[in-house]
Design brief:
The structure holds two protein chains of two kinds.
Chain A (H helix, E strand, L loop, with lengths): L1 E2 L5 E3 L6 E6 L4 E2 L1 E3 L2 E2 L1 E2 L23 E3 L6 E6 L5 E3 L2 E2 L1 E3 L9
Antiparallel strand pairs in A: 1-4, 2-3, 2-7, 3-9, 5-6, 5-10, 8-9, 8-12, 10-11
Chain B lengths: L3 H11 L3 E5 L2 E4 H18 L3 E5 L5 H12 L3 E4 L5 H11 L2 E5 L1 H7 L5 E5 H5 L22 E6 L9 E5 H11 L10 E4 L6 H13 L2 E4 L5 H10 L4 E4 L1 H14 L9 E5 L5 H10 L4 E8 L4 E6 L1 H9 L3 H4 L7 E2 L4 E5 L12 E6 L6 E2 L3 E2 L7 E9 L5 E6 L4 E3 L2 E3 L1 H9 L4 E11 L3 E10 L7 H9 L10 E4 L13 H10 L2
Parallel strand pairs in B: 1-10, 3-4, 3-5, 5-6, 9-10, 9-11, 11-12, 12-13, 25-26
Antiparallel strand pairs in B: 1-2, 7-8, 13-14, 14-15, 16-17, 17-20, 18-19, 20-21, 22-23, 24-25
Helix pairs in contact in B: 1-2, 1-8, 2-3, 7-8, 9-10, 10-11
The chains are: A mainly beta, B alpha/beta.
Chain lengths: 103, 503
C-alpha cells in the first residue's frame, strides 16, 4: 500500500511488466501485478514470489490501464504475463481516441 | 519520467524498424538506442553541463536528443544561421558544453571558451570522448523535472531567451497526443523545420513513439522537399506556412502532381494565408490536412483543426462552420484553454481576450526568469483570440501587436482576414503606426497576387464595407513580399519600421 506519484516507474515482482504512473488518486493505492504488490523499478523482487493464476492475463506494451473511477491510470512500458489490479479489482484497458498527426 | 522511455518502448515494440533516415544513412530503432547509449557515455566523460547541436537536420539531432536525455543533460539545438558573435554569446551561457557540429564549422568554433567541439561524425561514432562504449544499462535519470531541451528564441530585441522544456512536458505531450506504435509499416514522416524549432523536437518524439520512419530533410527548399517526399515515399509531413507557400508555387510552376504517397499534411507555426491552404488542398486532393497550434512554451501543439474539420468547414453552408477553416481547431483532450480579459476574468464564447492554457505539457518557463504559469497551472500565452460556441479556437495575433487607436483596441488579425478575402490580395500585414491624433493609426502592407491590381483606395473601401470605420487602414503600402523569418514567423517589427519610415 503506497501513495503513487505521477511519472514514477514501477515493476512487477513476478513478471517482466513495468508501468509508469500517468495519473493517481490522492490516497494510498494497493497496486498489484500478477497478484503480487508492484515494486520500485530499481528494487529487487522478493524471492519465491509467483504469478497468481487468476491474475495472469498479461499486459500489453504502450497500452493504458485504468481503474473503475478513472483516477488511477498506468502506461505499460514493458509487457509481461501478469495482469494489473488495485485492491483485487482488475484494471481495464483504456481505449484511446486517435488524434490526427500534428507533427 | 525521461524522453528515453519513448525510445526504450519503441525498441521493445519494433526495434528492427527504420527509425530515422537521412539521405543515404539510416538507423533502426535498436541502432538509434545503441547510438544514444554510446553518445551518452561520451557526454558524461566530457564533463559538460549542456549538449549543444549546431547542425542542419542530421542523424546527430535525434541521437543528440536521446543521448542527452540518457546522460541527464539539457539538449540545446542552436540556430546555424547565427553569426559567430551571437554564437559566442550563447556558448558562454551554456558552458561548459559539448558542441556537436559539421566538420566544416568545427575548426572555426574550436576556440570557444568552455566549449568542447566535436564533429557530427565523431559524435555519432560514440567517440566524443569515451572511445568505444560498451552496451549500456537503461540507467537514465527519472526526474520528471529535469530539463530535456533548451530552445533559444529568435530574440528580435535584446538577448535571446531560453525556453525550458522539462522531460515531463514533452513526455506528457506525447502520451497525450500519440498512440504508441500506431504507425503502419509504410508510414514515413518528413521533417523539414530546423532542429532549433520546437516542431522538430516534437516530430522526433512523436515519430519514435508512433513507430514511424522519420525522414530528415537537411535544410528546406521546396524542390528538395518535393523530391525527397517522392523518393522516400513520405506519407506524413509538417510544414510552416512559408514552406507550404513555396511548395505550392513550385508544383504550380512545373504543373506537377503532388508527391503521391503523401496522405497527411499538417501545418502550423504561423498564420496560414487562406489562398495558400486553398491552393494546397487542390494540389493535394487526397491528403488529410491538419492545422496545429502551439508554442515553444507549450511543448508544441495544444489545439488541432483535423481533417474532418477541414472537410466539414470547406463544404458547409452555415457561415459559423465555414469560418472554422480559419480557426486552429479544438484543444487537445489533455489541454484546457480559457480566454481571459485584461483583469484575468474568463470571457464567454465569442468574446476576445488572452488565450490561457493549462496542461501537463505546458512549460511556460524561460531560463533564469522563472515560470509564467500561475498557481492554478494556467499559462498566459500572450496570444489574443476567442473560442466559438463549439469550442473552436480562433487566433487574433499577439497581444503585444494589438493596435490601440483612440482608446479602442483593434486586432490586426481581424483586419488582415478581411483584406485577405479580397481577390487581389495574396498576403498582408496590419500594424499600428504612431499617429498624432489617435495615438496609433492602422496601417497595412499588401502583397498582390501575380497579375492582379488593387488601389489603396479600393482596399480601404473594401474594409470599410465589412468592418467598423475605425478598422479601416489609414495607410496602405504595396510590397513584393512580407518579411518572414526562416521558420515562417512574420516579422511585424520590420513591417512597422518600414511603414513608419515611409510615412
Amino acid at each position: 500500500m503506497a501513495r503513487l506519484k505521477t511519472g514514477t516507474r514501477l515493476k512487477s515482482a513476478v513478471c517482466n511488466t513495468q508501468v509508469m504512473i500517468v495519473a493517481a488518486p490522492d490516497a494510498d493505492v494497493d497496486l498489484a501485478c500478477g497478484g503480487q504488490p508492484m515494486i520500485d523499478a530499481a528494487a529487487t523482487p522478493p524471492a519465491g514470489a509467483v504469478i497468481s493464476p487468476d491474475a495472469a492475463k498479461g499486459t500489453v506494451l504502450g497500452k493504458r490501464y485504468v481503474n473503475a473511477d478513472g483516477k488511477l491510470e498506468l502506461l505499460c512500458i514493458k509487457p509481461g504475463e501478469g495482469s494489473l489490479s488495485v485492491a483485487g479489482e482488475a484494471l481495464v484497458l483504456k481505449e484511446a481516441k486517435p488524434l490526427p498527426s500534428s507533427d | 519520467m525521461n524522453l528515453m522511455m519513448l525510445l526504450e518502448m519503441a525498441v521493445s515494440g519494433f526495434g528492427e524498424r527504420v527509425a530515422v533516415q537521412n539521405v543515404g544513412a539510416a538507423l533502426r530503432y535498436d541502432e538509434l538506442f545503441a547510438a544514444a547509449g554510446a553518445a551518452a557515455a561520451g557526454i558524461e566523460a566530457s564533463g559538460c553541463a549542456h549538449v549543444a547541436v549546431l547542425d542542419e537536420n542530421s542523424l546527430a539531432v535525434p541521437v543528440g536528443l536521446f543521448a542527452s536525455a540518457w546522460a541527464g543533460k539539457p539538449f540545446v539545438p542552436l540556430n546555424y544561421r547565427l553569426t559567430d558573435s551571437e554564437l559566442e554569446a550563447l556558448a558562454a551561457r551554456i558552458a561548459p558544453s559539448l558542441l556537436v557540429t559539421s566538420s566544416e564549422r568545427a575548426g572555426a568554433l574550436a576556440g570557444l571558451p568552455g566549449t568542447t567541439v566535436v564533429t557530427r561524425e565523431a559524435f555519432l561514432a560514440g567517440g566524443a570522448a569515451a572511445g568505444d562504449a560498451p552496451a549500456r544499462e537503461p540507467n537514465w535519470p527519472m526526474d520528471p523535472d529535469a530539463i530535456a531541451i533548451l530552445l533559444f528564441t529568435s530574440g528580435t530585441t535584446g538577448a535571446p531567451k531560453a525556453a525550458v522544456i522539462r522531460h515531463k512536458h514533452l513526455v506528457s505531450y506525447i502520451f497525450g497526443s500519440v498512440e504508441f506504435g500506431a504507425a503502419g509499416d509504410d508510414d514515413a514522416a518528413l521533417v523539414s523545420v530546423p532542429p532549433y524549432h520546437i516542431a522538430a523536437m516534437a516530430a522526433i518524439a512523436s515519430s519514435v513513439y508512433s513507430g514511424r520512419r522519420l525522414v530528415q530533410l537537411p535544410s528546406f527548399s521546396a524542390e528538395a522537399w518535393i523530391e525527397t517526399a517522392r523518393r522516400e515515399h513520405v506519407t506524413h509531413a509538417f510544414v510552416v506556412p512559408t514552406m507550404l507557400g513555396r511548395i505550392v508555387d513550385v508544383l504550380d510552376q512545373r504543373s506537377e502532381a503532388a508527391p503521391a504517397r503523401l496522405r497527411a499534411l499538417s501545418y502550423g507555426g504561423g498564420k496560414m494565408p487562406l489562398p495558400v491552404i486553398e491552393r494546397a488542398m487542390k494540389l493535394f486532393p487526397t491528403a488529410d490536412f491538419t492545422n496545429a497550434y502551439g508554442l515553444t512554451e507549450t511543448s508544441s501543439t495544444i489545439a488541432i483543426l483535423g481533417p474532418d474539420d477541414h472537410r466539414a468547414a470547406a463544404s458547409a453552408d452555415e457561415p459559423a462552420v465555414r469560418r472554422r477553416l480559419t480557426s486552429v481547431g479544438r484543444p487537445l483532450p489533455s489541454v484546457e484553454v480559457e480566454i481571459r480579459d485584461p483583469s484575468g476574468q474568463s470571457v464567454e464564447p465569442g468574446g476576445s481576450g488572452e488565450i490561457c492554457v493549462r496542461g501537463e505539457q505546458v512549460s511556460g518557463e524561460y531560463l533564469g526568469r522563472g515560470s509564467l504559469v500561475d498557481r492554478d497551472g494556467w499559462f498566459p500565452t500572450r496570444d489574443a483570440g476567442f473560442l466559438d460556441e463549439d469550442g473552436y479556437l480562433f487566433l487574433e495575433g499577439r497581444i503585444d501587436d494589438v493596435i490601440v487607436r483612440g482608446g479602442e483596441n483593434l486586432s490586426p488579425g481581424e483586419i488582415e482576414e478581411v483584406l485577405l478575402a479580397h481577390d487581389a490580395v495574396a498576403d498582408c500585414a496590419v500594424v499600428g503606426i504612431p499617429d498624432e491624433e489617435w495615438g496609433e493609426a492602422v496601417a497595412a502592407m499588401i502583397v498582390l497576387r501575380a497579375g492582379r491590381t488593387a488601389t489603396a483606395d479600393e482596399l480601404q473601401r473594401w474594409v470599410r464595407g465589412r468592418l467598423r470605420s475605425s478598422r479601416m487602414p489609414q495607410r496602405i503600402e504595396f510590397r513584393d513580399e512580407l518579411p518572414y523569418n526562416e521558420t515562417g514567423k512574420l516579422l511585424r517589427r520590420r513591417v512597422k519600421a518600414d511603414l513608419t519610415g515611409a510615412s
